[in-house]
Automatic annotation (TrEMBL):
HAMAP family: Nuclease_YqgF. Could be a nuclease involved in processing of the 5'-end of pre-16S rRNA. This is Putative pre-16S rRNA nuclease. GO terms for biological process: rRNA 5'-end processing. One of its GO terms (molecular function) is hydrolase activity, acting on ester bonds. Residues 12-122 form the YqgF/RNase H-like domain. The keyword Hydrolase applies. Its EC number is 3.1.-.-. The keyword ATP-binding does not apply. One of its GO terms (cellular component) is cytosol. SUPFAM superfamilies: Ribonuclease H-like (SSF53098).
Amino acid sequence: MTTSPQEGLPRGARLAVDVGTVRVGLAVSDPDGLVATPVETIPRVAGSGAVPAGAVPADIARIAQEVVERGVGVVYVGLPKHLSGKESASSAAARGYAGLIAQAVGPVPVHLVDERMSTVSAHQALHASGRAGRKHRSVVDQVAAVVILQSALDVERNRSIRAGERVG
């Protein structure tokens, strides 16, 4: 396997996941980890109680499909924290969701990365682009995933390590 421009890191696309209570935003990078782009927003199913025990929820299955189709080398999941850095109930939910992703994607590493302000940044970017506030809902999770991924890519570039905390 070849290495990426971030010395010592394996080459491969990176996938970011912005976990919401209703929707999940996805963003992906190129194989060299240079640019983050939005992929899609999928309905959140995992954790809703609508999935029989032992079954893979449709949203987790969709994420696993993206990992395979795009040759993803690492999945970054946003970890919401308070501005103080303390974790909340949303943090626990994101940790649980990241665990489900890790089970579904097998050997591909899953990392939790601090996502403080990602949704705020996403709304600001959409507003700056001229998109009406009421139309943000359909894409804000994708844009938040782009913000999460770009932050992780910056860590990779600056420190030559994977960003965040590895799940499992």
